[in-house]
Amino acid sequence: MTAPSRLRGSLWFGLLSIAWLVLATGVAVRAADRPTVSVATRSGTHTLTIEWARTPSERAQGLMGRERMADGHGMLFDFGSEQPVYFWMKDTPLSLDMIFIKADGRTTRIAHGTTPFSEDVIPGGEPVRYVLELVAGGAKRIGLRPGDRFRIPPP
Model confidence over 35-69: pLDDT tens digits? Predict the structure, then answer.
């Protein structure tokens, strides 16, 4: 290889290395900037990244059409105050765990492994302020049970 060829090869390697670092750093920053909730269970304290669903249109859209979601990540629906809530899985290809949470952070009910695309109604039971949706199996993975308490920061 001639000196100019080696220089071009080194230049390309350097540019690719810089591009990789920028992308990797950007992904790490985006992950670090995501809001989180934590929950204390019998297996310890677990921190989950979340996407908020606060407005009526965000709550109506939910995870419809979403084909994948990382473990340890979920969508947190905030209804602003405690109220009866009802969910369904219409147009949702992921099986989910739905966790119903009071305003004080206490888990009241868990609907494990919901059926994708189902139009069956999933009631929250008693009035709740929040519903957290995780990929099916997520609640069991962290040992979550009714009565466990979430720490939810203000939006």
Answer: 999 999 999 999 999 999 999 999 999 999 999 99
Beta bridge partners of 83: 128
- The beta strand positions in 68-142, using DSSP E, are 73-83, 86-87, 96-101, 107-111, 122-123, 128-135
Taken in order 132, 59, 51, 72, the sign of the CA dihedral is: positive
pTM as predicted: 0.79
Length of the chain: 155
User: Between β-strands 44-53 and 96-101, what pairing exists: parallel, antiparallel or unpaired?
Assistant: unpaired
- Round to whole Å and give the CA distance between 74 and 31: 13
State phi, psi for 59 to the nearest 5 degrees.
-70, -35
β-partners of residue 44 are: 41
